[in-house]
Design a protein that fits this description.
The complex is a heterodimer of chains A (388) and B (326). In chain A, the strands form three sheets. Chain A has a five-stranded parallel beta sheet, sandwiched between helices. Chain A is α/β, with parallel strands linked by helices and 388 residues long. Chain A has 14 helices and nine strands. Chain A is globular. Chain A has two domains: 338 residues, Thiamin diphosphate (ThDP)-binding fold, Pyr/PP domains (Rossmann fold, 3-Layer(aba) Sandwich), CATH 3.40.50.970; 32 residues. In chain A, strand 4, helix 8 and strand 5 form a beta-alpha-beta unit. Chain B has 326 residues and is α/β, with parallel strands linked by helices. Chain B folds into two domains: 184 residues, Rossmann fold, CATH 3.40.50; 127 residues, Rossmann fold. Chain B has a seven-stranded mixed beta sheet with strand order 3-2-4-5-7-6-12, with helices on both faces. A five-stranded mixed beta sheet of chain B has the order 9-11-10-13-14, with helices on both faces. In chain B, helix 8 crosses helix 12. Classes of the chains: A alpha/beta (388), B alpha/beta (326). The interface between A and B is large, with 44 and 47 residues.
């Protein structure tokens, strides 16, 4: 695939979508002002072909991607509801970004390693991280706490862009070990302004690290639109660092899967880093504390609603006859079961012990932490004694 | 030969060499650490002997050095980083404070970050701006980091060995004006604990507590005081996080007087922490307030003024006199 594809997309010559439309020679011309993005599934659910980047998926695999997106969205909605009910202190919704996350997440092998931000709930799902594990930090019982090495999924990183350097270093280690695993770093359009991201690009290029930089450009960094971050399309940043950049339709799960798989294979072959800009949209607020009505118009959101990642795959599944009503009904029930499980798990999530403050500050211990732990324990115990 | 007389910088070099030999996971990273051997030659010859894959010249980006080292540590490596000068660490401060220090706790102990950040620090070498600072308190204030500074070639060798073996991130402050001072290093010795203070000179009338470059000044001050009939004990704290308060307490319970000395500005400096804790622990043993000698609340001055800025023999003795006058 070239850095910036200029070839027009063609409809597939075979396949259900083609049949449905009578193999129409539909060609979508890119908007003049926007760079071409890789797309394999139109917003209407029509399967189109990309000359350099395509993917063959079975009906079962397509249903799997659909299921991933639906369950992730349901989990996300439940977490938002739990925040509204006071069970979580905060939630960062991924609404609208399901295709970018599921597509890229399903491109990964088990031995690949993920460095997420705090919004990668869909990627976490793909890695097999139990969704309830993601909620501890938002409930305030821990700062993450899962073992990153269980699912090769690092802890959520809140400070914007920091993890791109960790991913790069990890990838340098992978290369040193002679492994053919790849590493993927998630970040957003806002993070693209951070120095750490630029340094990660530099280090990864200089050391030819097997890392994929997956930027979900969801158009908004809290209240700041992408124009406040960049004058060029973000994927073009890669060129100056000496590696390829690609813009993909971030609401097209097939394109995200295909492009990420391609970039991961480049990394495995020792061809170094790739920047993927998944062009998507944050349908909800930045977090539950945010109020988008103060800075953006609803018509923008409505325009993106027509490009919904889940609806377009559903349209494709239905048109191609890949899924029947029973599938969608069963999935609906599975979603409700998941939501119920998450709800119950959050409500049952115990507060940590008081003394957890002093745990895991250091791996090898620290005299001051020991001293303060003992003092605080004695202080707490003094109330118990008074109560007797 | 087990015991060698080495300059402090060479002792560090030997320590790095030993670490590279003993553990294939140890990496050296930094600016100009390869062919040049670092601007102070602390990594001299290491890239030649261990290769570019283990002794890594990095881009000139401190945050990138620390950030990628975190990733390498997560992969199982033990990176030893060189920040070229004290005043250049701040682009990496975010990665050190926000990530390196906190990731072990964030993961509830499930990951470890064995990263050593070596920083040549302090003044006295006639350098330009940003090359003479003492920012150790800015790191000691951060939970999750350990902060140490050797004052002798022997400690330079052994404390660096121990820092590299530590599973916690260690900020390792090297007293750059002492790089060329020679001392005996026994590479077969059994070292004491990394975070224990050392009695550099015993005494009975007053305790001088210092670390890094100021230990030598304090020893000179103690020798001068002896000529006036005053017995001054010198404690080399060696570690700023944790601080060996027990050792200071033992000394102060004996002498009744304490002066803390460092190059860093006195205001919010490690001397403040020592003074507060020791006042609390030793209130009935103290014959005078705990005094502090250090830098002023001003940017590190141009080189032509650093002799006035740095606490020298006379300023330390002045504090000794004031403490003994109570």
């Amino acid at each position: 695939m070239t850095v910036e594809s200029t070839a027009a997309r063609k409809p597939r010559r075979s396949g259900a979508a083609g049949k449905r439309t009578g193999a129409a020679k539909k060609q979508q011309s890119p908007q003049a002002s926007e760079p071409q993005l890789v797309q394999l599934l139109t917003p209407e659910g029509e399967r189109v072909e990309h000359p350099e980047c395509d993917i063959e998926l079975s009906a079962q695999e397509l249903r799997g991607l659909y299921r991933d997106m639906v369950l992730t969205r349901r989990f996300d909605a439940e977490a938002t509801a739990l925040q509204r009910q006071g069970e979580l202190g905060l939630w960062a919704s991924l609404l609208g970004q399901e295709a970018a996350q599921i597509g890229s997440g399903r491109a990964l092998r088990d031995d690949d390693y993920v460095f997420p931000t705090y919004r990668e709930h869909g990627v976490a799902w793909c890695r097999g991280v139990d969704p309830t594990n993601l909620l501890g930090m938002f409930r305030g019982v821990n700062h993450g706490g899962w073992d990153p090495n269980t699912n090769n999924f690092q802890l959520y990183t809140i400070v914007i862009g920091s993890q791109t350097l960790h991913a790069t270093g990890y990838a340098m280690g992978v290369a040193k070990d002679g492994a053919d695993s790849a590493v993927i770093a998630y970040f957003g359009d806002g993070a693209s302004s951070q120095g750490d991201v630029a340094e990660a690009f530099t280090f990864s290029a200089v050391y030819n690290a097997p890392v994929v930089f997956f930027c979900q450009n969801n158009q908004w960094a809290i209240s700041e639109p992408t124009e406040k971050q960049t004058r060029v399309p973000l994927y073009k940043r890669a060129e100056g660092f000496g590696f390829p950049g690609v813009r993909v339709d971030g609401n097209d799960v097939l394109a995200c899967l295909a492009v990420t798989r391609w970039a991961l294979e480049r990394a495995r072959r020792g061809e170094g880093p790739t920047l993927i800009e998944a062009f998507t949209y944050r349908m909800g607020a930045h977090t539950t504390s945010d109020d988008p009505s103060r800075y953006r118009h609803d018509d923008e959101r409505l325009a993106w609603e027509a490009k919904d990642p889940i609806q377009r795959l559903r349209a494709h599944l239905e048109a191609a006859g890949h899924a029947d009503e029973a599938f969608f009904t069963a999935l609906e029930e599975e979603s409700d079961t998941l939501a119920k499980r998450v709800r119950e798990a959050v409500r049952a999530m115990p507060d940590p012990d008081d003394m957890a403050i002093f745990e895991n500050v250091y791996a090898d211990g620290h005299a001051l932490v020991d001293e303060e732990r003992a003092q605080f324990a004695a202080y707490q115990a003094s109330f118990a004694e008074e109560g007797n | 030969m087990a015991v060698q007389k080495l300059p402090l910088a060479k002792a560090l070099n030997e320590s790095l060499r030993t670490a590279l030999e003993n553990d294939p996971k140890v990496l050296i990273m930094g600016e100009d650490v390869g062919k040049l051997g670092g601007v102070f030659r602390v990594t001299d010859g290491l890239q030649k002997d261990f290769g570019e894959d283990r002794v890594i010249d990095t881009p000139l980006a401190e945050s990138g050095i620390v950030g990628t080292a975190i990733g390498l540590a997560l992969r199982g490596y033990r990176p030893v980083l060189e920040i070229q000068f004290d005043g250049f660490v701040f682009p990496a401060y975010d990665q050190i404070v926000t990530q390196l220090a906190k990731m072990h706790a964030r993961a509830l102990g499930k990951i470890k970050l064995p990263v050593v950040v070596r920083i040549p620090y302090g003044g006295g070498i006639g350098a330009v701006e940003h090359h003479s600072e003492s920012p150790e308190a800015l790191f000691a204030h951060v939970a999750g980091l350990k902060v140490v500074s050797p004052s002798t070639p022997s400690d330079a060798y052994w404390m660096l060995q121990q820092a590299i073996q530590s599973d916690d991130p260690v900020v390792f402050f090297e007293p750059k004006r002492r790089y060329w001072d020679k001392g005996e290093v026994d590479v077969d010795a059994i070292p004491g604990p990394l975070h224990a203070a050392r009695t550099a000179r015993p005494g009975t009338d007053l305790t001088l507590a210092a670390y890094g470059p100021m230990v030598k000044v304090c020893l000179e001050a103690a020798a001068a005081a002896e000529e006036e009939g005053k017995s001054v004990e010198v404690l080399d704290l060696r570690s700023m996080s944790p601080i060996d308060f027990d050792a200071i307490q033992r000394s102060v319970e004996k002498t009744g007087r304490l002066v803390v000395v460092h190059e860093a500005p006195v205001f919010y400096g490690s001397g403040a922490e020592v003074a507060a804790r020791i006042t609390e622990r030793c209130f009935y043993s103290l014959e005078s307030p705990v005094l502090r000698v250090g830098g002023f609340h001003a940017p590190y001055p141009p080189a032509r003024l650093e002799e006035e800025y740095l606490p020298g023999l006379d300023r330390v003795l002045d504090a000794v006199d004031r403490a003994l006058a109570y």
